[in-house]
Structures are given as C-alpha cells and as structure tokens.
Amino acid sequence: MSIHLGQAGVQMGEAIWTQYGLEHGIGMDGQRMAEMADGCDTQFHACPAFYSENGEGRYVPRAVFIDTEPMVIDQLQAADIGELFNPDYLVRGKEDAANNYARGYYSLSHRTLVGATEAIRQMAEDADNLQGMLLYHSFGGGTGSGVTAHLLQQLEEEFPRKTRLSFSVYPSPYLCTSVVEPYNTVLMTHRSMNSMECSFMMDNQAIFSICSSRLSIERPSYANLNQLIGQVVSGVTASLRFGGDLNVDMSEFQTNLVPYPRLHFPLISFAPIITCENVNHENYDIGAMTKQLFEPACQMVRCGSPGRGKYMACCLLYRGHILPKDINEAIASIKATRSVRFVDWCPTGFKIGINAMPPKMAPNGDLAPVRRCVTMLASTTAISDAWSNIDEKFDIMYRKRAFVHWFVGEGMEMQEFSEARENLACLEMDYREAGSSGCVRQ
C-alpha cells in the first residue's frame, strides 16, 4: 500500500505511478497499453502487489493520497494520470497546514485522517496479504510533518506487525522552501522515531544538482526532480513488483539496513545517470556503475565530505541482465578502495538484489534509456551531518524563540521543542558512536 501525504508526497506520487505504468504496460486510464506507433515494447506485466484489478480489465493503484487542503489533489485529478486513481482514496481537507507541524498534528489531522484511515482500512481489507506500507512525504511541510506523524502513530496501533517504510524529502542545506523547516523536521522526527522502521532520505538540493550537472538541465523544475525520484523509487520497489533471481522484500530492507532501531535513515544513490547525448560514450558496466554509487554526485542527500562517514550496510539493487560473478568482482573492487570505509563491526556489509527486468525511462525524459541500472540504499554515519545541519538551524531560531508562538497557538506545549531537540542530539550521538565502536544505546 502506498500513502502519499502533503504537496511533496502527492507530486512525487504522480511521477512514481507514471513510471510504474510505463514498466507494467498500464496506461493513464488504468487499461493495458496498446502497442506504441514507434514499436516500443509495452508488454503488460501484472502487478497485484501495487495494482488491484476491478474485474473488467482496469487496474487501480493501491494508493491513498492525503492533503489538508484540496488544491494539489485537484491538480492531480486534472492531470493526464488523474483518471487512474480511485476518487474514494483521494482524501483532502479544506484548510492549509500553513507549513506548521503543530497545525498539521494538533488541529487538522483529526479531521483529515478520519477519511484517510477509513480508506487505508478498506484497502488493507481488500488485500490478500498486506506486507506493509510505503509512505511518501516531506519533513519540512506542515502536512508532511504533522499529519504524517499522527498517521504513523495510528498505523502503529492498527497494523503493529506491518512494515512501515518511507521516502522522505529532507530539507536542503541551502535551498529552503519554508522558514520553519528546521522546527517541523526536528518535531516530526522526534514524534515518529519509534513508529517508522526505515526512512529513505532525499533532498531537493542534491537532486537539483544531479539534474543540472549530470543531466545538463539548465533550470530544473520539480517535474524534473520528481521524474528522477520516480526512477529511483522504481529501482527500490522493482523486486516487490517483478520476480527476479534474487528478490528483496519489504521486511528485508529493515533487517539489512537498520543496525539499531534508531539508526533507520539510509541514503539513496542511483546509477547510471546519463543524458541521451552521452549514452553511447559512457562506460556503464557493472564495476563502473557500482563505483559511481559511492560518489557524492550520485547521492540523493548532501551530507558533508564523502570521506568522513563510514558505511554500516549497503543494499545494492541491480536491474537488467546481470551476472552475479560481475557483481562479486565489483564489490571486491569497492572493498579494496580506501576511500570507501566500513565500520569494523560489520564484516559483510553488502546485501544484493538482482532483477532481470531492465529499467524503463520515460519517453522524451531526462534520463537516457539503458539496459541496466543499480540503486543503492546505504546506512552510513555520514547522515549525521545532515541532522547536525538541521539541528544547528533549529538552535539559532529557538534561542530567540522565533516563530514559536505559531506552534504554541495550535495547542502544542513549549516543552515539546526541548524534548525533540534533545532526542535529535541523541540521534547524532548514536551515529557517532556507531562509527567509532558500535556500542549504541537501544
């Protein structure tokens, strides 16, 4: 089940379900795609895990879209792909969360989530065997932080044994869409620390840099950013959607990537990122692609200098015709590289997934069509730099109690600020301890 929350989650959802439709041969109207005029392979692949069939040949995404105000979901319905989604699972309120975690959590979530939890319950009952939920949201928005935190607590109570994974847009170091992003991020992370099994982080600035430098897009828009995110998410979920030689299910992600319950924030890398002009001139064999994953230019989060962090675990998800022998050689080469350091208490370090279904790039999209690709989910101590950065901004504002009245006015207590900040300071310390000795407080 996919749950898209707030403006970021809904817009990511549009790109992600467009990508899934391409790969499974399902059109914007939910029908099987007809053969394209240019002869492209649009072979249909059933995907009962992500789509439900209505009995008349129409496929409906197992997705719920939630926002506290109607505009973004109205735009989704008006888009080409809008017809694909069940209107009963498009849940919208009447008021904006105003980039305010407290407004989302205390004031609006009760009204908005009544319809949402009913839709989620209905979808769960229709499923034969619910593995878990994938959530898409931003840390910095009012809905993405406040409503998501409240929903996660409800999901933990109602579906305690189901896996909860999220793809989260993290505030960028310099590109900022809201002044109070640091407050929202720290409060949301504190509130949902025990309700989320694994949260894959991406930041707009890192993806913006990839689009401008690697894909030569002069002024990347959110559509460009979301198209790249759609490709990355597709790489992560491929093993859930297609059969493969070495599949990875939802529970395996957390088993292999979360060494301690609190350290559940892996970063994502993707390769190859190639433009159509360069596709015939670049080397994208298995060794070269695997090496690219460890370069900051391919990582979806900006987190300090690459040499500072140590890796605790890496999950490499390959797509296309790939031999295990080539992967073993590529990993041996990485292990021999001094620039990629692992913690001394994790001797194996790598989890591998192989899926024979090659990636599909959007027609006239930014990425060149390639026969194989790889997505990496990595638990690294370098991610603590990202948390340090947001904590520092939080401290600068909170020292002056700037903007705090907007949060307190929505029914939040002042003490929650200091509790949340203390929790995040402990998270930074946990990552530092993991990098040095591995003795982390549970």
Automatic annotation (TrEMBL):
TM spans (from-to): none
Cofactor(s) essential for the protein: Mg(2+)
Stretches assigned to the Tubulin/FtsZ 2-layer sandwich domain: 246-392
Coiled-coil annotated residue ranges, if any: none
GO biological process terms held by the UniProt record: microtubule-based process
CDD domains named among the record's database cross-references: alpha_tubulin
SMART domains, sorted: Tubulin, Tubulin_C
Keywords associated with the record: Cytoplasm, Cytoskeleton, GTP-binding, Hydrolase, Magnesium, Metal-binding, Microtubule, Nucleotide-binding
Domain Tubulin/FtsZ GTPase: 47-244
GO molecular-function terms, A-Z: GTP binding; hydrolase activity; metal ion binding; structural constituent of cytoskeleton
Pfam families per the UniProt record, alphabetical: Tubulin, Tubulin_C
Domain of life: Eukaryota
Catalytic activity annotation: GTP + H2O = GDP + phosphate + H(+)
Cross-referenced InterPro entries: Alpha_tubulin, Tub_FtsZ_C, Tubulin, Tubulin/FtsZ-like_C, Tubulin/FtsZ_2-layer-sand-dom, Tubulin/FtsZ_GTPase_sf, Tubulin_C, Tubulin_CS
Entry annotated with the keyword Cytoplasm: yes
Protein family (similarity comment): Belongs to the tubulin family.
Functional note: Tubulin is the major constituent of microtubules, a cylinder consisting of laterally associated linear protofilaments composed of alpha- and beta-tubulin heterodimers. Microtubules grow by the addition of GTP-tubulin dimers to the microtubule end, where a stabilizing cap forms. Below the cap, tubulin dimers are in GDP-bound state, owing to GTPase activity of alpha-tubulin.
Subunit and partners: Dimer of alpha and beta chains. A typical microtubule is a hollow water-filled tube with an outer diameter of 25 nm and an inner diameter of 15 nM. Alpha-beta heterodimers associate head-to-tail to form protofilaments running lengthwise along the microtubule wall with the beta-tubulin subunit facing the microtubule plus end conferring a structural polarity. Microtubules usually have 13 protofilaments but different protofilament numbers can be found in some organisms and specialized cells.
Name of protein: Tubulin alpha chain
